[in-house]
Amino acid sequence: MNQRSTEIVQLLSKEKDEITISGFAEYFQVSQKTIRNDLKEINSILNENKRDKVIINSGGKINIPENFEEAMPILLEGDFYQYKLSREEREQVASAMIVNSIDYITLATIADHLFVSRATVINDLKAIKAFIRKGNLEVVSHANKGLRIEGAESDKRRFLLNLLQSSVSVYDKHKEVVSKYVSVQAGDSSVIQKIISEQEQRYKKYLKDSTFQEIILYLRIMVNRNQAGEFLEPQEDTNSENYMFALDTLKYISQYCDVVTTEDDIKNFSHFLDSVRYMNHGTFSKNTIIIQMITRQYIAGISSELGINLNTDYDFFENLSNHLESIFSAPAMEYQEVDVINEVLENNQDVLESVINQMFVIYQYTDRELSDIEIKYIAIHVCAAIERKKNKEVAFRVIVACHAGIGTSRLLLEKLKRHFKFRVVDVISAHEAMCIEPNSADFVISTIPLDGCSLEYVVVSAAFNDADYIRVGNRIDALRNNRNHSTNVDEEGLSAKRLIDEIRPLVYDTIESEEKAKDFEKEISKVIRYHFKQSVENEAGIISPYLHHLLQAANIEVDVECNDWRDAVRRSGEKLVERGYIEDRYIDAMIHSIEEYGSYVVLAKGFALPHAKVEEGSIRLGMHFIRLKNPVPFGVEELDPIEFVCCLSAIDHKSYLKAFFSLVNMLKDDEYRQMLHDAESPEEMTRIIEKYEHSIS
To answer: Global pTM?
Structure first.
């Protein structure tokens, strides 16, 4: 049995009040279907051993057989029920329980978990306190409440990490004694393992097996503590070289492990990563851009089949390409069959069918066939993109409620603002929900069920993942169908493009010189797009640039004469060498890679994007685009000859992604492709590119 089933057995043996399926589901934060499956597993063991089974009556009430306690040794065999702990083990388990407890914990509770008397725990208490003190923590006693811990949250996590590491190595048959008795680890281990593997590949930082397992343990403790609302104290700023590794890892941990992570978590984790050792291991990174191109083709196929244009959703493109890269960058992993995934797809069978129908696009890249659950996760990305498109212009009034404190509420609020044009009228604690006035908002978004709330509400996780997005979207659909809501965006929901379009005529009517008007419009556009966070700038330049930022006139050439594909690759990179973006050897590396791996740089009909590895001479993020006077073949019959060649100098896997997204979209659009073909100068091509990007933003 799993840990939840084991705890259900223990609760059934102790609970004297009415027990229900819904009560267990709320307690464990899972669906009622999951609890029924756990009880089915328990009954299977009882039936095999000719014991009376647990009965589930109407209304989900659970009836326990009178002789249930006699069956406990059978049900908990191998789960330490009959295993007698040594005094040292009792001290460790009790210490973990006290340190991991969110509130006061009584001696009786500890005794019940260890299956010993309260007197035994009292006798152990002095040694327990001394053991905990070694971790820079203090046990505080209260006569009527029990024991609690005083100390920094980072010290508590370090204590638990050290304790669990020692428990793994000390024992043989009964490994991980502490974690078996106390829930100090959360998050699915296989999912976390997959996320770390992805980041190893992305950042080319490869871990030893022992370090890999230590990081999994660190993250599972973090998930457990954050889910309980126990967040880290403020951490010192650090210039850690592993900051981005930590940032990206925790971004996916938040999404897939249903937990909120903070900036302090990133700092603490990056410091932790600084302390571990890495192995030297390098692989060629050409797969990244190929997968991104496959992603574009896949999105185009999905859009065509569903009749919904998802090609301009950058979030969808970025999320799906990252997801596909994670699938193919490491050995296949066992994804969990999550109830909410199946529930969402039950109502979106057309999406799932389209995802399956378009899999041939992905299979042109790999021989590995994806499992059903892997395909379902892709379908969830598609569903979320559809909801984003559907709800982009809806301005509902919502209240955000959270049970884990106002800080967590604010984090949830930021996630909601990223994807919806809601007018958030209030942010409250969950216990205030009973005081909400009936007409104060259209609905409530909460992290827990709200008993007594006068408004309809949607329960989401604080991490707000794709499944939560779809839940909120379904609520909006219901409101849209039942009420006469205006879908016009109010001033809070005004887009950058709409604001620029409204200002543009005023600029040209006011300024007589067309050249000055264009310059003024460009400056206004930069300010507006910065306000809407459509590009991020600092003193070092644009971090996540659009295509027109990279392809100014100085980085475009028209009617370039080349003899063959090698000459075209070389000519596309020469200007970047002159301007200090790449070294000479980068051009040789691009040519060598094509010779060795084939024409993987040909990404669309008539278009190639040559590039090499960062360590082969890339200095700064940049592009140089050439249009050939006479197109040349690159060796891909169905896509030759190549007219457009764009050399990419990338410094990581992400900073160029927005520009790449626009470039590939443009080359798939026949109208803009023809405009690039007909343009007479680099300046005209720059204007075409910027106009195109404004049209899709």
So the answer is: 0.44
